[in-house]
């Protein structure tokens, strides 16, 4: 039955508590034609259906409630354990990040130490290269000084050969040192590049460590949590854990390789420095020995030439005395010659038979011939003596000039020795060591190609 079948419905009026219950049913007058009525069985059937439906709905509700409780328990446990597992994973990830951060920081510190050591070695080699300018200037100055020798003293002696060899040795040393310095500069650049890669990776590790540490510290009660739009999206740049670890491993491996190469280069640079210092010292000693030997030879030559000059001067003095004696004797022979010639001439005036060739005549002729031969011999000898005197005087002058040239050459050699004393200051710059430096490098090798 529906409300449409009735014009009005009975109204139940209840009184206040304590009052007598009174029910007044007011029947209204039907205003329309009544509809179809249902039978009692239908009514009972409807009631049963209502009860069955209610029971069915209750059963369904009960099942849903049980499933909801099960779901709540399962999801609560799942959420708890997922959060716990992810927190553990975050801790493990933080440990991995911390470990790699320490490894990268330690490797970066080692790279800095090696870079500083290589830089110091390069600076030492640069100072050694700069110090080679003095020996080169000294060698060139000595060559220039010795070019001022004159005449026969301008010889290509062992000193000149050693000085030229010293110039070649020094220029070769400068090329070798410059090559080592250039290699050191390139290696420093490679170390700095490796250090830059380590710095970037280390900074990324620090940032990632801060992010993961912040994520680990977040809880459901944190104020910074909120729902995010599409947080599970895949952005460009995601890498796998293997790629992540391989990247840092490669950075560390590259840095270690660069450090090993730098250490080898530092050993080679020290060995190169020892080799060039020993080579320069050996050439320096050879040049000084040749120069001192040449100076000694010049001193001996000057002494010998001085002795020759003294002996020649003595000979000239004696020869001049003998020439004066010859001239005096020659003049002394003029009177006897006049006498004998006068006698011969006077005896030609004997008259008649008295003009005979007697023993007196033969004696006077023999005496005249003897005097003429003597005078001729003395004149010849006087001419020879005068020629010899002139030759001695000329040679004496030549020896004087030669002695002057030798003394000038000796003076130049002594000035060269004095100039080379400037190299004594190289001991302060460790360019020329007092003792031979052992030719070893950091790897213990004793033979190393300088180039």
Characterise the protein shown here.
Residues 368-395 form a coiled coil. This is Tektin. Keywords: Cell projection, Cilium, Coiled coil, Cytoplasm, Flagellum. It is found in: Cytoplasm, Cytoskeleton, Cilium axoneme. One of its GO terms (cellular component) is nucleus. The chain has 6 helices and no strands. It has helices at 40-131, 133-146, 158-217, 241-332, 334-347, 359-420. The chain has a domain at 312-417. The longest helix is centred in the N-terminal third of the chain and has 92 residues, at 40-131. It is mainly alpha-helical.
SSE layout and pairings?
Elements: H1 40-131, H2 133-146, H3 158-217, H4 241-332, H5 334-347, H6 359-420
Helix pairs in contact: 1-3, 1-4, 2-3, 2-6, 3-4, 4-6, 5-6
Brief synopsis:
By secondary structure, the protein is an all-alpha fold. The protein has helices at 40-131, 133-146, 158-217, 241-332, 334-347, 359-420. The relative contact order is 0.10.
**Percent helix among the residues?**
over 70%
Tally the helices.
6
Q: What series of H and E elements makes up the topology? A: HHHHHH
Query: What does the overall shape look like?
Result: rod-shaped
Assess the beta-strand content as a share of residues: under 5%
**Overall average residue pLDDT:** 85
Structural class: mainly alpha
Query: Gyration radius, to the nearest Å?
Result: 66 Å
Number of strands: 0
Pick out the low-confidence regions: 1-28, 432-451
Q: How far apart, in Å, are the first and last alpha carbons?
A: 118 Å
Largest sheet: none
Coiled coil: 368-395
Subcellular location: Cytoplasm, Cytoskeleton, Cilium axoneme
GO biological process, one term: cilium assembly
Protein name: Tektin
């Amino acid at each position: 039955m529906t409300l449409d079948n009735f014009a009005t419905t009975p109204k139940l009026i209840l009184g206040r508590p304590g009052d007598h219950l009174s029910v007044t049913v007011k029947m209204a007058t039907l205003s329309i034609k009544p509809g179809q009525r249902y039978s009692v069985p239908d009514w009972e059937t409807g009631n049963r259906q209502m009860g069955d439906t209610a029971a069915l709905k209750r059963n369904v509700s009960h099942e849903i409630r049980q499933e909801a409780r099960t779901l709540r328990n399962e999801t609560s446990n799942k959420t708890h354990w997922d959060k716990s597992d992810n927190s553990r994973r975050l801790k493990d990830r933080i440990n991995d990040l911390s470990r790699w951060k320490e490894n990268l920081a330690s490797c970066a510190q080692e790279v800095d130490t090696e870079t500083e050591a290589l830089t110091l070695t390069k600076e030492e080699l640069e100072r050694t290269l700069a110090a080679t300018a003095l020996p080169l200037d000294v060698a060139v100055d000595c060559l220039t000084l010795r070019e001022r020798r004159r005449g026969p003293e301008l010889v290509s002696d062992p000193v000149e050969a050693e000085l030229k060899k010293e110039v070649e040795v020094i220029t070769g040393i400068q090329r070798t040192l410059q090559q080592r310095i250039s290699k050191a500069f390139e290696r420093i650049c490679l170390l700095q590049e490796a250090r830059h890669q380590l710095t970037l990776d280390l900074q990324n590790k620090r940032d990632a460590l801060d992010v993961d540490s912040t994520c680990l510290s977040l809880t459901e009660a944190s104020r910074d949590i909120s729902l995010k739009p599409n947080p599970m999206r895949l952005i460009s740049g995601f890498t796998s854990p293997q790629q992540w670890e391989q990247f840092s491993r490669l950075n560390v491996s590259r840095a270690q390789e660069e450090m090993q190469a730098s250490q080898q280069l530092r050993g080679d640079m020290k060995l190169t420095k020892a080799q060039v210092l020993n080579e320069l010292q050996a050439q320096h000693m050879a040049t000084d020995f040749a120069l001192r030997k040449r100076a000694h030879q010049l001193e001996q030559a000057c002494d010998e030439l001085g002795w020759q000059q003294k002996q020649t001067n003595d000979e000239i003095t004696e020869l001049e005395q003998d020439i004066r004696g010859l001239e005096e004797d020659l003049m002394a022979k003029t009177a006897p010659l006049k006498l004998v010639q006068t006698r011969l001439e006077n005896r030609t005036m004997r008259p008649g038979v008295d003009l005979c060739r007697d023993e007196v005549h033969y004696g006077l002729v023999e005496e005249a011939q003897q005097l003429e031969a003597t005078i001729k011999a003395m004149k010849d000898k006087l001419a020879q003596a005068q020629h010899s005197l002139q030759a001695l005087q000329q040679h004496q002058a030549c020896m004087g000039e030669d002695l002057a040239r030798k003394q000038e050459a000796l003076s130049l050699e002594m000035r060269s020795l004095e100039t080379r004393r400037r190299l004594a200051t190289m001991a302060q710059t460790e360019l020329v060591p007092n003792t031979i430096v052992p030719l070893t490098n950091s790897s213990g090798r004793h033979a190393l190609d300088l180039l």
